[in-house]
Design brief:
alpha/beta, eight-stranded parallel sheet, 14 strands, 34% helix, globular, binds iron/sulfur cluster
Length: 413
Amino acid sequence: MTDTIDSLCKNCLRCVQSCPGQVITKVANAEYKRLGNSYWTPDIIRRQWFQAETGRIPVSGAGYGGPFSGPGFDDMWTDMSEIVRPTRDGIHGREYINTVVDLGRSLRYLRFDAAGHVVGDAPKKIEIPIPIILKDLPLGSLSESVFLAMAEAAQAMDTFMIAPVKEWKPYLEPYKAHLIPLLTEAEIDTHGELIRGVRIIEIQLSDETAARLSRIRAAYPDVLIMVRVRLGERSGEEVLALTRAGADILHLCADRDGNVESGNGPRFVKDVVRSVHMRLVEAGCRNEITLFASGGIAMAEHVAKSIIVGADAVALDIPLLLALECRLCFRCEAGLSCPVEVENIHPEWGKSRILNLIAAWRNQLIEVLGAMGIREIRRLRGEVGRAMFFDDLERETFGRLFGKRKKRESVGN
Ligand code: SF4
């Protein structure tokens, strides 16, 4: 039998049509269809593999063949009103589009003394060139090589990687300027030296966190304090309390499929981030704090959509594993061996795959910003006027004309 050279196939189906004996058929590989789950679909996984391999934006061909609405991020559309303007070309440098974001608190107002000099110190801020940091991975066949690949990628991009303190080993020391240790409150007391050597720490939220923030700040005045908030029904009030208590950054986490548990069934991360953002806007303190969103961010467009609903930036997890050729088979969660041996990657190879993926995502972000006529990612935050939401359109316009047409499905398993 001749090698079918599947890797070179362009899917033109000429072999099927021209075979004189009509013995050739072509079907989707059953293993491909089993990749991932209902949220991390085979198509999403395949696209991340392509971007990690090539650093290029996946092009699906002429026109869009998919549905125009769906669950999760798919019930939201971004403004493309400026897409026809050739000068709006950020990728090829005809126009500068800025993707830098600031991490840390901002002052609500300036105070001046009698001589007109500003009173008090400005809060400490850190700039990162892309609105993305690398999050600790929720699953995976992990090893020193995987952590090294992520740390090197974070350093190369001048952004950050979150590393649980139990994974903190001497080989990560050279990267600590780009690492965020994730600690429980009990671990803060026992890791003073580590905390003094980094620029940001992340604390797991507990009932005591808001009350202890000022003590932690006094002990580590040069370190930005990020708090990890698992999104739920009380998130709006928790976030408001932490903002008032002086946290610098809040990390709003949904589960890996973007779901958030609530009394009325799961809500999707973008809807919860939007309500948390609005809670801070209503309280008049949204500009004082930086918000990260994570969970369910599977494609470049999800970064832009997360920012439109109110996040300043996102923390990526599963796409990083996909960049390392993970198949999302979930065998590692059951303690079984990894079919692609993710744990045995070469760190340099892993780093280059992660850089490729995020470079392709950044280019898509610039395309989306250019299509909206926005030249500054910081201006996109909370700009819901640059997007349309299925629920809003149904409620305000089409529902009145046609009745309720489509029930939204939940996302993930
Ligand atoms: S391929 Fe499967 S076993 Fe390997 S890291 Fe990915 S989910 Fe885990």
